[in-house]
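Handoff note, outgoing to incoming analyst
You'll be picking up this chain. Sequence as last confirmed:
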Amino acid sequence: MAYYRRIREMREDHDLTQKALAEMLGMKQPQYFRYEQGYRDIPTDILIKLADLYGTTTDYLLGRTDNPKTL
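Most recent structure output, in case you need it:
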């Protein structure tokens, strides 16, 4: 699974809008939209913030594992 699909699923599972999540990450919604659509690569610091927010690992968000649990 491509990472951008997974970050969208995680956002939806947590009942967050793109706008709300973008604000939490300190960016504008169109910028986050580009990450979620796969138009732009996610910077490492944003990836780490998403993993912390969702209580999972960066490996899960990147599709390197299907286990969403943190270690």
